Amino acid sequence: MTTAPTPPHLLLGSCDYPEHVPRDRWATYARMQKELGLSFVRIAEFAWSRIEPQCGRYDWAWLDQAIEAYHGCGLRVVLCTLTATPPAWLIRAHPEILASDEQGRVREFGSRRHYDFASPVYREHSRRLTLAMALRYGRHPAVVGWQTDNEFGCHGTTRSYGGASAAAFPEWLRHRYGVVERLNEAWGNVFWSMEYTDFSQVRPPMLTVTELNPSHVLDYARFASQQVADFQKEQLEILREMSPGRFITHNFMIFESGFDHYQVAQGLDFATWDNYPLGMLEFFAPSGSGEEVKTRYARTGHPDLIAFNHDLYRGLVAQPGLGREGRGTPNGPWVMEQQCGQVNWAPYNPLPAGGAVQLWTAQAWAHGADVVSYFRWRAATMAQEVMHSGLLRHDETPDRGYAEVETLDQTQFPVGPVPARVALLHDYESLWLYDQQKHSASLSYWTQTVAYYSALRSLGIDVDIVHADAGLSAYAVVVAPAITLVPPERAARWAKAVEGGVALVCGPRTAFRTPGGQTWETGQPGPLSDTLGVKLLQYDSLRPTLSQRVSGPGGDVQAHGWAESYRLQGAEALYSYSGGPLDGEAAVTRRGQVTTIGAHSPELIGAVLADVLQRAGVETTPLPEGVRLSRRAGRTLVQNWTLDAVQWNGLSLGPVSFMVQEE
Amino acid sequence: MTTAPTPPHLLLGSCDYPEHVPRDRWATYARMQKELGLSFVRIAEFAWSRIEPQCGRYDWAWLDQAIEAYHGCGLRVVLCTLTATPPAWLIRAHPEILASDEQGRVREFGSRRHYDFASPVYREHSRRLTLAMALRYGRHPAVVGWQTDNEFGCHGTTRSYGGASAAAFPEWLRHRYGVVERLNEAWGNVFWSMEYTDFSQVRPPMLTVTELNPSHVLDYARFASQQVADFQKEQLEILREMSPGRFITHNFMIFESGFDHYQVAQGLDFATWDNYPLGMLEFFAPSGSGEEVKTRYARTGHPDLIAFNHDLYRGLVAQPGLGREGRGTPNGPWVMEQQCGQVNWAPYNPLPAGGAVQLWTAQAWAHGADVVSYFRWRAATMAQEVMHSGLLRHDETPDRGYAEVETLDQTQFPVGPVPARVALLHDYESLWLYDQQKHSASLSYWTQTVAYYSALRSLGIDVDIVHADAGLSAYAVVVAPAITLVPPERAARWAKAVEGGVALVCGPRTAFRTPGGQTWETGQPGPLSDTLGVKLLQYDSLRPTLSQRVSGPGGDVQAHGWAESYRLQGAEALYSYSGGPLDGEAAVTRRGQVTTIGAHSPELIGAVLADVLQRAGVETTPLPEGVRLSRRAGRTLVQNWTLDAVQWNGLSLGPVSFMVQEE
Amino acid sequence: MTTAPTPPHLLLGSCDYPEHVPRDRWATYARMQKELGLSFVRIAEFAWSRIEPQCGRYDWAWLDQAIEAYHGCGLRVVLCTLTATPPAWLIRAHPEILASDEQGRVREFGSRRHYDFASPVYREHSRRLTLAMALRYGRHPAVVGWQTDNEFGCHGTTRSYGGASAAAFPEWLRHRYGVVERLNEAWGNVFWSMEYTDFSQVRPPMLTVTELNPSHVLDYARFASQQVADFQKEQLEILREMSPGRFITHNFMIFESGFDHYQVAQGLDFATWDNYPLGMLEFFAPSGSGEEVKTRYARTGHPDLIAFNHDLYRGLVAQPGLGREGRGTPNGPWVMEQQCGQVNWAPYNPLPAGGAVQLWTAQAWAHGADVVSYFRWRAATMAQEVMHSGLLRHDETPDRGYAEVETLDQTQFPVGPVPARVALLHDYESLWLYDQQKHSASLSYWTQTVAYYSALRSLGIDVDIVHADAGLSAYAVVVAPAITLVPPERAARWAKAVEGGVALVCGPRTAFRTPGGQTWETGQPGPLSDTLGVKLLQYDSLRPTLSQRVSGPGGDVQAHGWAESYRLQGAEALYSYSGGPLDGEAAVTRRGQVTTIGAHSPELIGAVLADVLQRAGVETTPLPEGVRLSRRAGRTLVQNWTLDAVQWNGLSLGPVSFMVQEE
Ligand SMILES: [Zn+2]
Ligand SMILES: [Zn+2]
Ligand SMILES: [Zn+2]
C-alpha cells in the first residue's frame, strides 16, 4: 500500500482490463497511464472466469503479474469482487442462480448481471470468491481499495420474478408482518378479494390481468432492495476483516432506481458512480423537453442531469470513512467510470464535443468528486463493447479523450467541501410508489424531482441531495419535490426543522401516501397537513395537449402534466388557478416558512424557489441556458455547456469550456 | 323487498364497498346517500374473501349488518355474485383456474378477473358460491336485484389460451362440426396444409409464425363467447330459483368486444353498463381524429362514443323482464357505474369539467337509462384504485361530483320510450372477422361503425342499435355500417325488410365473408348481391397519406382508409371515384331503397345518410360540433358538450350543460 | 417433358392451387391460362396434407389429374417439395419439429413454416416426402422443374431458439473450433467472463440481461444458415437423381437476411424470387425517407428497391445450370411470384396503379428474369390470404392485373445478358454483424447498401450485385458499400483487383471487423488499410436531429446517421469535415483507384460515384426522380415510375409506363 502523502487536489485514474490484452502490454500501459498523469487503476471487474477457470481451481499468476506492473509504475490499484459475471461452469452447474424477468422468463447466460441476489447458492459462491480475493490481495501494498460487484441493478437486475427471489419473498413478508392478517391490512388486500390466508401464497407482482396492487409492488421493491444490501454486506464483512485499511465502495449507476441506495451504501467508505453524460441524455432527458433538448446537449450531455447524479451520490454516505487511498482523507466520492469518448449503448452514440471530457472532469470535481477514473483505458477489441471508446483506440493510438486529459491541469481543482445551503430531499420508497401509479404518463418521480433541482441550478444554487429523513438543521432551505411517502415520524422531523428556522418547499403529491402505500383516511397530506396548513382539494392529470393557467404575483404561467389544489387550513394562497376545473382554487400556498407548490411548471417552480431563497437569505444568480456555477473549496467553477462562445457576467467563455475562479 | 310504487323518473344510486371501511361508517354512509337523493346501492362486488375467508367457512355477519344499514335508511340493494375475484386460497388450491394469455403465460393472482371461464372446477365454485349468496339474501326485503360477476371480458379476459379453455376447445369443435373433415372445410384448412385428422389436434389460435387462419380465430371467439354465456347461465338459473322477483343484470364494459353480448344478455332482465367517458375517450377516440378530438373532449368525453354505448346496451335485451326494483316496470337499462370524478386507469386522467356529471346523467336518461349509479361512494384509500375518485374524497368530504348530484333535479327525467325510427345493425361475429383482417390498419369494425352512428347523431337522429338479425319492420331506415358476415338467412331477412318498405344503407365490406370466415365463391356481397344490385369490383386500402377522390351530386369529397367500387347489376351509381386506380367506378350505389356506400369518408357518409333519411321521411336536424339532441318520453334533451357557451336554434346553452324541452 | 424449342423472349406463368378449388375448374383454368399467354404453372406448394393425408398414406390421384389438365393445354409445370407446411398429424406426433422464437416460445401449428431446420425427424420426413414426389413426378413430361420448399427464412424462421437447433449448436461449434478455448478466443468471451469450459454449455443467443455478444450472434447466424443449406441439399440430391433434366430452384424472399443466400443457392440451377413491390415498400422504404417516399411510390413500389432484389438474386448463381424449361438455355432467373394486384400482409395494401403490373414485368425482364410468374391465378376464397388478389377475382372474373397481362407484348423482351460494368459487393456475414451493432439506430446494412445502389441507378448504371469474394476483374468499378467483415484473404483479393485496374469504392465501416466479429488490434480497416491508404480516426453516430457538414469540390453537403474520419496513410482527402467534432478531418479519401467514403449522405455518395465512374470510363446518365434505365440484350428499358407523364431526353413517357429502345 502506497504511503505517499495525499495530494490536495483532484486525482485521475482509468479502468483497465489486463485480461483483455496480451501480457506484454501490461507494463507498457501502466507506464503510459503514469505518464498521462493518472494515479489510479481499477481492474479485475469481470475477471472471474480467468481467476477461477474451473470450480475451485484458482489462477492468480496473471493478476499477480498485472498488479505488479501497475505497482511498478506507482499506480494505486482498485480491485473488484468479480461477482457481476458468474461464469458458465457455475451457471450450468447451478442454473437456479439465474434471475427471471417480469414475464417469468429466465434471464440467460451470455452477457452480465445474470444472477438472483436472493440465491443461497450464489451467495455462498459470492462469499467464497470474495474471501479468496481478499486473502490474496487484501494486504497487497498496491491495493488501496475495493469495488463491490459492478453497477448493482443496471439493466433492471435488482428484481427477479422467479426462482430464489420468489421463494424468499414469503419468508421476508412473514418476518415483516408476523401474521398474514397484518399483511392483508397493510396492502389493503380486501380491495379485490386479494387477501391471503398464508404467506406461502404470495408471489412476486407480475403478469396480472390488470393493475398490480401498489402495496404489493412497494413491498417487493423493499424486499429486493434488501437482497442487494444483504448480498453486498456479506462481501463487506469479509473485505473489512481481510483487507484492513483499504476503502470499499460501489460504482452506482445513473438514475438507477431499483434499490434503496441509502440502504445499500451503508458500510461503504464513500460512493462512486459511473458517469456517461451522452447516453444519459438519450435515456433521461427531461420529460416533455423532447428532441430540442436532446439535440442541443447531444455532444455534452445536460449539465443538470449530470450534476444531479454527482450531488445524489455524494450524499449517499454522510459519515466519513476511509479515504480515496484507503487510510486517510479526503473521503470524497469518485466518478469510477467517466465517459471519455463515444459510448455504445444508446440508440445514437455521438462523439463528445471538443472540451467535453475536461468539462465533465471539472464538473465532477466541483460537485465533490476527489477522483475521476476514465472508462476505459483502451477500447475493447472484442465482444459487446467494441464500439465503446477508451482513452486509447483499438489500435492503441491516443483518442480524443486522451488529448483532453493530457492537457488538463488537475492542480486547479483542490479538494474540499461543497458549500450547499440548500437540501433537496430524496427517497426511493417514494420513487417506487410514485412511478407505480403515475396517473399522468408524462410525469415521473425523477422528472418532477429533477425539475426542482434544475430550477435551483438555474439560480446558481449549490445543492445537497439527502435522504428524506436526514438531518436538516444545517440548511437554510429544504426542498421536497416528490416525497410522496411521508410517515408520521418523517412529518414530525420536518416540522421540527421548520420550527428550527428551516424554510421548507414541498412539491405536488407530497405525503400523498402512507408507508403501506395507501392514502390517508384523513386525506392528504396526512401527518404533514398542519405543517403545510393545507388539505388536498383536487388533483388534475393533464394530457400533453392540456394546460392549466396559474395566476399569481408575477402574472400567469401554465401548468403541465399535473395540477393540484388545496383547501387552506392555516396557509395563505400565493398563486391560484384561473379557468378550468380548478378555477379560483389555491395552487401555491404558504404557511410561515413552509411553501407548497401544487402545479407542475418549471417556470412557476423557478419563481417560487427564487422568492423562498431570497427570504431565506440565500443569494441567487439567475443563469442563462447552458451556463452553470458550482462551488467547492473556496472556488467557483463557471461552466459553459453550449457549443457557442458565451459572454456572461463580464466573462468570455469559449464553447464547451469552464473557468475556475477564486472567491 | 321494498314495495314502494315505482317512481316515474330517473333514479340514482352508488356503488359502495362496506368491507373497505370500518363498520362504524356504514350507517353514516347509508344516511348520507339517502340525504343525497340516492335510491340504490350496489354492494359486495369483490367481497368473496370476506364472505368466505377460507374454503367453506362463510362469514355472513358483516354483510347482514351492512345490508341492514342500507335497508334501515330505505336504500334498495343490488347484490353481486362475487365471482370476479376468486381468492388466494382457491387459486393456490386449484391453479388450473387461472387463465393464460395469448402468449401462453399464466395470468397471475393479485389483481382481478384471473379465471378461465371454461374451468370446470371454477364453474363448480361459481355455482356453489352463487347458491350460498342466493340462499342467504335471495329473499331479503332490501335486495331488489343481482349483478352477475363484474365487467365480463374486461382487460382481455374472455379468451384464455391454455389450460381449461385449450382443453375444452376440441370438444366444442366436435360438437359443432361432427367430423373433422367438416371443420377442415369450414376453415379452409387445405390452404396451408392446416388440415387436422383429429379434433384433439386443434389448439387455441396463438403464437404462429405468421398470420392466423381467420376462421380459426373466429371459431375460437365463438367458443370463448359461449363459455361466458354458459358461465353466467349457471348463476342465472340459481338466482332465478332462489331469489324470485329480483332482477338479474350484468354490468357490461365500454366497447367490450371479446364476447357476443347478445348471447350473454339472454336471460337477463335488462343490461347495465359502466360509463367512464374520460377514460373511454383516451382509448376509443375516433380513429384518425387524433389529438385534436382527444383534447377538445378531454373533460367531457365524446358525446357520440358515450351515446353509442347507451344505445348499444339498451338494445341488448329486447323483451321486458323484471324492472329496476325487481318486480314491476319500467325495465329500462341502468348505468351501473357512472364516473363522477377522475378515473385512474388511462395514461392521463383529467378532472371532468364542471357540469359534466350532470350532463352524463341527463344523457344516460335520454338514451334510455332508468337508473344511474355512481362509482363509487367514497374514493378507495387502498390498493389499485386509490387515485380513482368517488362522490366522497378519501377524507370523506364531498368531492366535485357530489355537488353536481346534489343539485340535480331528477324529476325532469321521466322514464319512457326512446322514439328511434332508425336502426343501426351490429354483430360481434362481424367485428371479430373484420378486426382479424383489417387490411387497412387505420380502420376497425368500431371505427367504421361509430362513423355511421356519429353521422346520424350529427343529424339529430335517435338511433336504436340492434342485432343484425333483429326485426327491422318498425324502422324507417336501417343502417348496416360493417356487417361483414352475412349468411343467406340474414340476407333474406334484410331483403324482406326492404320489400316491406325499410330503407337500407350498407357500408363497405358488407357481406364480404361467409359464416365460416371465407369469401363467397361467387364474389361479394354474396347473398346480398341482388338486394344491393351490385358486385364488388375493387377494394383499396389507403395508407394515411393517401386519399381517393369521390365525385357526386354535392361535389367532391376525399375517401380515407378504404375505398371499394362496384359493378352495377341493377343499382345506379350515386357517386363515382375520380382519379386513381378506381377512376370512373361506382363509389355509392342505389337500388330502390337500398344504398351502398363503398368509400370511407365521414363527410360522404353524412351526405348520403341525410339524403336517405329525407327520402324516408325522417326529419333531420344538422347540429354543430358538440351540440346533440336526444329524445325520450316526449321530451328532448338539448346538450352542449363544449367548454364554451353556445347559441343554437334560439337557445342559449352554457358550457357543458343541457336543457330539457317538452315536445 | 416438353421438347419445344426455347423461345427467345420472356415467358410468363402463374402460381395455381388446384387443391383450393373444385376439380371441375382445373381444365377450365388451364385453358384460360394458355389463352392468356402463360407458359408455366407452379403448383403443389402447400399441398402436403392433400398428398399425404395421413402418415404414409399417399393420395396421388388428384395431383395426377391436375398435372394432366395443365399438360393437356400445353402448360409446363413447376412442382414444389411441399415441406414448407408440415401437417397436423406429423406435428402432433413429433412436436419437437416446431421451432422456438427468440423468447423461447414454441412457434405453434396453424400457419406455415413452423419447423426447425435442424430437426432430425423433420429432415427424415423431408427426404421421404421429396423422394416420394420425385419418384411420382420426376420424369413426368409436363414437369420442367422444381421449387424447394417456399421462401426460406420468411417470417423470421431461419433461426430457432430451442429444441433441435439448441441441441445441434454445441456440436456445430465443436466441429468449427475443435477445442473450447478456441471458441472463447474467437468470441472474446473473456470480456464479461463469458468463457465456456465445455461446448455443451453454449445456448442460442437469447434473453440475456443486456447486449448479446456479437460474435455469439454471428456464429449462431452461421449455424442456422448452414441448417438451411443442409436441409435443401438433401432435397437437391434426391431431385437430381430422380428427376433428371429438370431444373431446381428456390423462391427467395424480398431482402430476406436470415441466411447466407450464396450458400443456400449452391447447387440450384438458378435463383427465383417473389416480387411484391407494394408490400416491400411499406417494410423496406429507404430509411429516413419517411412517409414522403412511401406515399409517392405507394402504388408502384420503389424502382430501386425492386431492382436491387432482381440484381441480387440474378447474381446468386454464377454458373449456368439447367434452363427455365429444364434442359437447355437460357438459364436466367425467374420471378416466381409477381404481385398482380393488392397484397394482404402490409399494414396498408393499396391497389397498384394502372400499368404497374406491366412495368414490373418489363423491369423484371430488363434485370435478367427469363420468366415472370404471377401470384396467384385466382384469389383465395379461404383462410389467411382471402384479401390477397390474383389474376382472377374470388368470383373468377378477370381482375385488373389480368387485363394488363393480356395486353402485354412479350416479344419485345428478348432474353440475353445484362451488360453491367459495375459490381456492388454484398455479404450476409457483414449484414449480420452490422445489424447486431448498428451504433446508429437509423442505419442498417440494407439502408447503407441500398443508398449506394440507388445512387448508381440514379446515374443510369446497370449493376451486378455479387458476393464480396466474387471475381471482380470483369468490372470497371466495384463498390463495397458496407462490407464490414473483411478477412485478410478478401482484402488481398480486392487489392489484386485494384492492381488489375478495377476502381474500388468503399463505404463507411468497411473492414471494421474481423471474421470472428471482433475489431482489428491494429485498428480499422485492418488488412485493407494499405489498399485504402487510410486508418480509421473517428466514427460519429448522428441522431436524426444532428448532421455533420462535409466540404469538398462541389461545395458542402450534410452527412446524416454516420460520419467517420481517417488518418491519411498514402491516400489524399477529397472531402473533409467542417465544423463539429470532426472539423478538418478527411471524410472521403482516394489512393490511386481506391476511394473511401466515410460520411453517410446520398448526395455525397452520388457525387463521388459519378466522379469515379467518369474516371473509369463508365458512361453515366443522371436521371430525374422516378425515371430509370435498364439495359438487356442490346435493348434499353426506359421506365417512368411516377404517376405523372414525364418528358425526358426527348421522350414522352406516360404515367407508370415504359419504352423499349433498341441500342
Ligand atoms: Zn460500467
Ligand atoms: Zn367497474
Ligand atoms: Zn409466396
Largest interface: A-B, 54 and 64 residues
Number of domains of chain A: 3
Span between termini of chain A = 37 Å
How many separate helices of chain A?
19
Give the overall average pLDDT of chain A.
Answer: 96
Structural class of chain A: alpha/beta
Q: Order of strands side by side in the largest beta sheet of chain A?
A: 5-4-3-2-1-9-8-7-6
Bound molecules: zinc ion
Radius of gyration of chain A: 25 Å
The CATH superfamily name of the largest domain in chain A is: Glycosidases
Which architecture name of the largest domain in chain A does CATH use? Alpha-Beta Barrel
Count all strands of chain A and give the number.
25
CATH topology of the largest domain in chain A: TIM Barrel
- Unreliable stretches of chain A: none
**Based on the structure, what is the oligomeric state of the protein chains?**
homotrimer
**Which word captures the global form of chain A?**
globular
